[in-house]
Amino acid sequence: MKHWWKFVAVLFVLYAIIAGFLMDVPALPILHETIRNLYFHVTMWMAMMVLMTISLIYSIRHLSGFKNEHDIVASEAANTGLLFGFMGLVTGMIWARFTWGTWWVADPKLNGAAITILIYLAYVVLRNSIDEEQKRAKVSAVYNIFSYIMLLVFLLVLPRMTDSLHPGNGGNPAFSTYDLDNNMRMVFYPAVIGWTLLGVWMMTLKIRIKKIKLKKGL
Amino acid sequence: MLNELKNLISKEILLEWRQKYSFGGILLYVVSTVFVCFLSFKKIVDVPTWNALFWIIILFASVSAVAKSFIQESRGRLLYYYTIASPQSIILSKIIYNSFLVCFLSVLSLGVYSVMIGNPVQNLSMFFLTIILGSLGLSSVLTLVSAIASKAANNLTLMSVLSFPVIIPLLIILIKLSKNSIDGIGWSVNYRYFISLFSLDMIVIILAFLLFPYLWRD
User: Fold this and answer.
1) What is the pLDDT of residues A11-20, one digit of tens each?
2) Nearest to residue B109, comparing CAs of B80, B137, B146, B135?
């Protein structure tokens, strides 16, 4: 069973969808039933961060050995991560519409999400604007490392400097209140693992497609 | 290394002196932008508007000032640098030179600003410290990004696409700090912002120092 983790991914995601919509959730003010979005919105961001970290690691590995394979992994991980980022953005906007009343507010967490998307779109643009393969791999690896670290600064340090509407900041209901409810934890953790594994699976498929294309000279 | 740095910086100054038109162009850019703002705003009473406008002008002026540091280097001159200097001293000399340039531009635009639009800054020494640390950060991010963008086609557009999302953390701290110094808030509140600004500058410089050698030769 080489591919057991793919079964785990499918099972956990199915479980997260079914249990996420059917199981009891605590009745919290403002959030009400929208709390179920936790299983989708938060998990998207976690899967995205895992994929972006894979991309970072392979960029560093590329700079230390200049292997073409590492560059393919780095770029496809970033592409898949972008997809998850978009889905996190959309689910977050829907959630914000029903709890805060608007699609978008000026908030450190939301701005951080937008900047993440912008940075990786810039990464894609950079990759597309260099034709020569080795040069593209090297230059985009440098930008990937640089922007990832600046992104970490933005996501980890700056939200602590200002107040935020987002859960986890400024006295809003956060994980600590969710954690009180063991039912939700039973769905949330498998959901994180399932979506992340699904993301990794998508990434490996994309890498294989890319390699076949390279081999056939497409 | 120190000797090399000194020579490279004096070379930058000499080159700038020989190509006075580009330096004059940037000066004129700052002055005319402030003049356009003066004509459209007449008098800015609102402090946040004054502040945001000031930093946006500096951001755009420094993007166009720093962009040329790698993009406009001719191929022959780059080949010459390969033979005489290490990449580390090249990037450090460019960062030092560019931060003086951006610092000069910021002070100039503060001058033109106070003549035309008015100068509400209450704690000038703190404002100047903000400008100095800010120029260091802005110029080091922009110098590295200009080195990245110079490898790609269509590089002037790419310069702003790549640098803006990365520069936002820096800009947020800068705007916060300069807002505080306009309002005359004391050192006891602001020292932690200065510490985070300084450490962000150091992170960027260290990253540039580590990553630039990979961009240097291809």
Assistant:
1) 998 988 888 8
2) B135
ipTM of the complex: 0.87
Rounded Cα gap, residues A23 and A33, in angstroms:
11
Q: Domain of B10?
A: 2-216
Which residue out of B144, B148, B190, B218 would a mutagenesis test of the A interface target, given it has the greatest number of A Cβ atoms within 10 Å? B148
- The verdict on a CB contact (< 8 Å) between A142 and B211 is yes
Cβ separation of B166 and A131 shorter than 8 Å?
A: no
Output the six-digit token pair for B202.
Answer: 């150091």
Decide if B203 and A153 are in contact by the 8 Å CB cutoff.
yes
Lowest average pLDDT, out of A75-79, A201-205, B9-13, goes to: B9-13
What Å distances lie between residue B56 and A152, A154, B109, CA to CA? 24, 19, 11
* Cβ pair B169:A63 closer than 8 A: no
**Cα–Cα nearest to B89, from B181, B186, B6:** B6
**Minimal-distance CA residue of chain B relative to A151:** B166
Average pLDDT for B186-212: 89
Work out how many domains chain B is built from and give that number: 1
CA B53 to chain centre: 16
Give the pLDDT confidence of B172-196 residue by residue, as tens digits.
889 988 988 888 887 888 888 888 8
